[in-house]
Amino acid sequence: MVNSISAVRVGAMHRAVGAYATVALGTLAALAVMSVVAPRLATSEAWGHAVIVGVFALLLVMRSRAARGGSAAGLRAVVVIAGILTAANLVEAAIPGLFPSWMRVEMLAVAALTLLVMVLAVKARRAA
Predict the structure, then answer these.
(1) Per-residue buried b or exposed e for 96-109, using 16+ beta carbons within 10 Å of the residue's own CB
(2) Which terminus of the chain has fewer CB atoms gathered within 10 Å of its CB, N or C?
């Protein structure tokens, strides 16, 4: 069970996961709009990345909820998923010409959010 110290940290982590999920869903909405008004900015690569990020957002929300309920496995899963997402977004953002510039900025923002999630989850695990 999560003690009161880590419960505060898990709560902060859960809010950071919520911010990540909001960005992921906002990216999908932005792509939908761009598909109509500026199709060159809504490339198939951008769609593929955004859908994968959206799926991981749902997965992270579910695991974060489990961690918030006291699940050590949920907390461990958040650390692993957030770490993978951080690395993947940084690598993809660094590949020249693969994604539109706006999406590369979004990837860096997502990497920062997932790094924050990972740090908060690690701190919560240590306090548990």
Answers:
(1) eeebbeebbebbeb
(2) N
Convert the pLDDT of each residue in 73-94 to its tens digit: 999 999 999 999 999 999 999 9
- 22 HSE (CA, 13 A, CB side): 7
DSSP string, 12-28: HHHHHHHHHHHHHHHHH
Give CA–CA dist 12/22, Å, rounded: 15
Residue 39 is classified by DSSP as G
Cβ proximity of 90 and 72 under 8 Å: no
Of 128, 27, 26, which Cα lies nearest the Cα of 68? 128
pTM over 0.90: no
* Domain ranges across the chain: 4-127
Q: Is residue 97 a contact partner of residue 78, using CB atoms and an 8 Å limit?
A: no
